[in-house]
Amino acid sequence: MRYFFLSFLLSLFVSCEQSKKISEKEVMETFNEFFYLLDNDIDKIRNYLSEDFMIFEVSRKWNSEEFIEFVKGFGKYESKRNFKNIKIDTDLNSAHISLEHTGEFELETPTPEGVTFLSYEWLESAYLIKENGKLKFKFYFSEQIND
User: Fold this and answer.
1) What's the pLDDT band for 134 if we cut at 50, 70, 90?
2) Which of 26, 68, 69, 140 has a Cα at 20 to 30 A from 56?
3) Residues 21-56 pLDDT 10s
Protein backbone atom coordinates (compact mmCIF):
# COMPACT_ATOMS: atom_id res chain seq x y z
CA MET A 1 0.00 0.00 0.00
CA ARG A 2 2.80 2.39 0.92
CA TYR A 3 4.52 1.67 -2.43
CA PHE A 4 1.28 2.38 -4.31
CA PHE A 5 0.81 5.70 -2.48
CA LEU A 6 4.41 6.83 -3.16
CA SER A 7 4.05 5.85 -6.84
CA PHE A 8 0.83 7.82 -7.05
CA LEU A 9 2.45 10.93 -5.53
CA LEU A 10 5.46 10.66 -7.81
CA SER A 11 3.31 10.32 -10.94
CA LEU A 12 1.18 13.27 -9.83
CA PHE A 13 4.29 15.39 -9.31
CA VAL A 14 5.75 14.41 -12.71
CA SER A 15 2.49 15.15 -14.54
CA CYS A 16 2.24 18.57 -12.87
CA GLU A 17 5.80 19.40 -13.90
CA GLN A 18 5.13 18.47 -17.54
CA SER A 19 1.97 20.57 -17.81
CA LYS A 20 3.20 24.05 -17.01
CA LYS A 21 1.25 26.99 -18.30
CA ILE A 22 2.97 28.99 -21.05
CA SER A 23 4.56 32.07 -19.52
CA GLU A 24 3.96 35.64 -20.66
CA LYS A 25 7.74 35.94 -20.97
CA GLU A 26 7.80 33.08 -23.50
CA VAL A 27 4.98 34.73 -25.47
CA MET A 28 6.79 38.08 -25.58
CA GLU A 29 10.11 36.48 -26.56
CA THR A 30 8.40 34.67 -29.45
CA PHE A 31 6.49 37.84 -30.40
CA ASN A 32 9.68 39.97 -30.43
CA GLU A 33 11.61 37.36 -32.42
CA PHE A 34 8.76 37.22 -34.96
CA PHE A 35 8.93 40.98 -35.56
CA TYR A 36 12.73 41.03 -35.62
CA LEU A 37 12.67 38.44 -38.41
CA LEU A 38 9.79 40.19 -40.18
CA ASP A 39 11.97 43.30 -40.49
CA ASN A 40 15.40 41.68 -40.91
CA ASP A 41 15.26 38.13 -42.30
CA ILE A 42 11.78 37.24 -43.51
CA ASP A 43 12.75 33.77 -44.79
CA LYS A 44 13.62 32.63 -41.24
CA ILE A 45 10.17 33.61 -39.97
CA ARG A 46 8.91 30.16 -41.00
CA ASN A 47 10.52 28.82 -37.79
CA TYR A 48 7.92 30.82 -35.83
CA LEU A 49 4.86 29.79 -37.86
CA SER A 50 2.72 26.70 -37.39
CA GLU A 51 2.28 24.34 -40.32
CA ASP A 52 -1.17 25.79 -41.01
CA PHE A 53 -0.40 29.44 -40.21
CA MET A 54 -2.78 32.07 -41.52
CA ILE A 55 -2.72 35.86 -41.26
CA PHE A 56 -5.46 38.37 -42.03
CA GLU A 57 -3.73 41.55 -43.21
CA VAL A 58 -4.78 44.37 -45.57
CA SER A 59 -8.30 42.90 -45.78
CA ARG A 60 -7.02 39.58 -47.07
CA LYS A 61 -6.30 36.09 -45.76
CA TRP A 62 -2.72 34.89 -46.45
CA ASN A 63 -0.96 31.59 -45.78
CA SER A 64 2.69 31.68 -44.71
CA GLU A 65 4.19 31.57 -48.22
CA GLU A 66 1.84 34.25 -49.57
CA PHE A 67 2.58 36.48 -46.60
CA ILE A 68 6.36 36.06 -46.93
CA GLU A 69 6.18 37.01 -50.62
CA PHE A 70 3.98 40.01 -49.74
CA VAL A 71 6.58 41.28 -47.24
CA LYS A 72 9.44 40.69 -49.67
CA GLY A 73 7.60 42.97 -52.11
CA PHE A 74 8.40 45.97 -49.90
CA GLY A 75 12.11 45.62 -50.57
CA LYS A 76 14.55 46.76 -47.89
CA TYR A 77 13.33 49.15 -45.22
CA GLU A 78 14.16 50.50 -41.78
CA SER A 79 11.45 50.24 -39.15
CA LYS A 80 10.57 51.68 -35.78
CA ARG A 81 7.78 49.76 -34.10
CA ASN A 82 5.94 50.39 -30.88
CA PHE A 83 3.60 47.96 -29.13
CA LYS A 84 1.27 49.08 -26.34
CA ASN A 85 -1.76 47.93 -24.38
CA ILE A 86 -0.51 44.36 -24.65
CA LYS A 87 -2.79 41.73 -23.14
CA ILE A 88 -1.73 38.09 -22.93
CA ASP A 89 -3.75 35.00 -21.98
CA THR A 90 -2.13 31.59 -21.78
CA ASP A 91 -2.89 27.99 -20.92
CA LEU A 92 -0.89 24.77 -21.20
CA ASN A 93 -0.62 24.62 -25.00
CA SER A 94 -1.65 27.98 -26.43
CA ALA A 95 -1.52 31.73 -25.96
CA HIS A 96 -3.46 34.74 -27.18
CA ILE A 97 -2.02 38.24 -27.43
CA SER A 98 -3.81 41.46 -28.33
CA LEU A 99 -2.22 44.89 -28.72
CA GLU A 100 -1.98 48.24 -30.43
CA HIS A 101 0.90 48.55 -32.88
CA THR A 102 2.40 51.64 -34.49
CA GLY A 103 5.12 51.55 -37.09
CA GLU A 104 7.25 54.03 -38.98
CA PHE A 105 9.04 52.79 -42.07
CA GLU A 106 11.71 54.28 -44.31
CA LEU A 107 11.96 52.47 -47.63
CA GLU A 108 15.56 52.10 -48.76
CA THR A 109 14.69 52.22 -52.45
CA PRO A 110 14.16 55.91 -53.21
CA THR A 111 11.42 57.03 -55.55
CA PRO A 112 11.81 59.91 -58.03
CA GLU A 113 10.35 62.11 -55.26
CA GLY A 114 13.02 60.96 -52.78
CA VAL A 115 13.01 58.68 -49.76
CA THR A 116 9.62 57.24 -48.84
CA PHE A 117 8.40 57.37 -45.24
CA LEU A 118 5.31 55.44 -44.17
CA SER A 119 3.49 55.52 -40.84
CA TYR A 120 0.75 53.13 -39.72
CA GLU A 121 -1.31 52.19 -36.70
CA TRP A 122 -2.95 48.78 -36.23
CA LEU A 123 -5.08 46.80 -33.80
CA GLU A 124 -3.71 43.28 -33.68
CA SER A 125 -4.41 39.89 -32.20
CA ALA A 126 -2.52 36.62 -32.45
CA TYR A 127 -3.08 33.01 -31.44
CA LEU A 128 0.00 30.91 -30.72
CA ILE A 129 0.27 27.17 -30.09
CA LYS A 130 2.89 24.75 -28.84
CA GLU A 131 4.10 22.72 -31.81
CA ASN A 132 6.88 20.20 -31.26
CA GLY A 133 7.66 21.87 -27.93
CA LYS A 134 8.06 25.35 -29.44
CA LEU A 135 5.63 28.28 -29.32
CA LYS A 136 4.53 29.21 -32.86
CA PHE A 137 2.05 31.58 -34.47
CA LYS A 138 -1.05 29.84 -35.80
CA PHE A 139 -3.17 32.91 -36.61
CA TYR A 140 -2.46 36.65 -36.77
CA PHE A 141 -5.09 39.34 -37.27
CA SER A 142 -4.05 42.90 -38.14
CA GLU A 143 -6.42 45.75 -38.90
CA GLN A 144 -5.04 49.13 -39.91
CA ILE A 145 -6.83 51.89 -37.99
CA ASN A 146 -4.82 54.93 -39.06
CA ASP A 147 -2.27 55.84 -41.70
Assistant:
1) very high
2) 26
3) 999 999 999 999 999 999 999 999 999 999 999 999
Distance of alpha carbon 97 from alpha carbon 125, whole angstroms: 6
**How far apart are alpha carbons 67 and 54 in whole angstroms?**
9
Domain-located, residue 31: yes
Expressed as residue numbers, the domain containing 69 is 20-146
Q: Is 59 left (phi over 0), alpha (psi -120 to 50) or beta?
A: left
> Going by C-beta distance under 8 Å and a sequence separation of 6 or more, which residues neighbour residue 103?
79, 80, 81, 82, 118, 119, 120, 121, 122
CATH number, domain of 52, equals 3.10.450.50
For 53-100, the pLDDT digits (tens) are 999 999 999 999 999 999 999 888 999 999 999 999 999 999 999 999
The answer to whether residue 10 sits within a structural domain is: no
CB 122 within 8 A of CB 100: yes
